[in-house]
Amino acid sequence: MRSQVPRSSSSCAACKLMKRKCTSGCLLAPYFQADEPKKFAMVHKVFGASNVTKILNEVPKSQRQDAVDSLVFEAEERLKDPVYGCIGAITSLQDKMFQLQHDLAVAKARLARCSTRTSYASCSTTSPFLLFDGEFGVSPFDNFFMDEGGLTTQFHQHPFP
Amino acid sequence: MPYTRCAVCKYFRRRCAPDCVFAPYFPNNNPQKFICVHRFYGASNIGKMLEEIPVQLRANAVESLYYEAKCRIQDPVYGCVGIISSLHQQIQIAESQLAKARAKIYFLDAKFTTVESTSSLDKSLIHQNRVDYVLDDPFNTLFY
């Protein structure tokens, strides 16, 4: 007669994939639920289960979910782009940042010219706007700040020269 | 010619075959590179990845793996995803600043255009000596 003990179906996705018993102390179980098998499959393909376990062991428990999320993201990117992985994303964001810094510099130069032009114009005419200069001279953007060198980024060097 | 093993085969203390997939990318004068990459990816995963990539792109793939591994050493929680997140934030700030700068340029341009057109109106009115028109001009305070 068959045993009446029900079969456990609570294995996490990691233990299911690796066909092993999922114990109550399984390190990966909280982060790789059984209903998300693809998540672990991606991470396993790129990093390997033992490396993921080592990485999580080196991280405080409160930050393990974030670590898993970042590993999943990296694995996804690597599978989408086997050559560059996340570096492809970083490179394109950097290019966008460089373009924005250039556009900001151009806008800053133009602002400087505009400011010179409007103050010269208001000084050199008898325009009635002189009387309203206090009102129109205060623009809605006086709290606006742009630093001298544009924005800085912690990622100063292009990864691949 | 002396026999030299690549960093991977030296690490595993095995013979380095002439067609070793790792040898061109992990020379034995830089053992740290493989140790760093191996820590997160594992040698067999790296080997499988390299075999799936065209030969001319393998060097770049190894460099990107090395870079990601270094990021993960520096930041064990977020790795290079931390850099991506930081770049997204900086781009958001830059886009906001650029939008404000462009709006300010538009505002100043509009102000200059109004000042210029009013000043040229003043001059033409003085030239034509049209006092009645000037009195009707709501913006001219010279006569008030």
Notes on the protein architecture:
- The complex is a heterodimer of chains A (161) and B (144).
- Chain A is mainly alpha-helical.
- Chain A is built from six helices and no strands.
- Chain B is mainly α and 144 residues long.
- In chain B, helix 2 (31-41) packs across helix 4 (55-74).
- Chain B is rod-shaped, with a radius of gyration of 35 Å.
- Chain B starts with 6 loop residues before the first helix and ends in an 8-residue tail after the last helix.
- Classes of the chains: A mainly alpha (161), B mainly alpha (144).
- The interface between A and B is large, with 64 and 58 residues.
- Chain B: Belongs to the LOB domain-containing protein family.
- Chain B: It comes from Deinandra increscens subsp. villosa.
- Chain B: InterPro entries: LOB.
Keywords:
heterodimer, A: 161 residues, mainly alpha, 6 helices, elongated, B: 144 residues, disordered C terminus, LOB (chain A)
Secondary structure elements and their pairing?
The complex is a heterodimer of chains A (161) and B (144).
Chain A lengths: L12 H5 L19 H10 L2 H9 L6 H17 L5 H39 L8 H5 L24
Helix pairs in contact in A: 2-4
Chain B lengths: L6 H5 L19 H11 L1 H9 L3 H20 L5 H49 L2 H6 L8
Helix pairs in contact in B: 2-4
What's the number of helices of chain A? 6
Order of helices and strands of chain A: HHHHHH
SS element count, helices of chain B = 6
What is the residue-averaged pLDDT of chain B? 84
Largest interface chains and counts: A-B, 64 and 58 residues
Q: What portion of the residues of chain A fall into strands of 2 or more residues?
A: under 5%
Round the Cα radius of gyration of chain B to an integer and report it. Answer: 35 Å
The geometry of chain B reads as rod-shaped
Radius of gyration of chain A: 29 Å
The end-to-end distance of chain B, rounded to whole angstroms, is: 101 Å
What does the oligomeric state look like here?
A: heterodimer
Pfam family, one (chain A): LOB
Protein name (chain A): LOB domain-containing protein
Domain LOB (chain A): 10-111
Family (chain A): Belongs to the LOB domain-containing protein family.
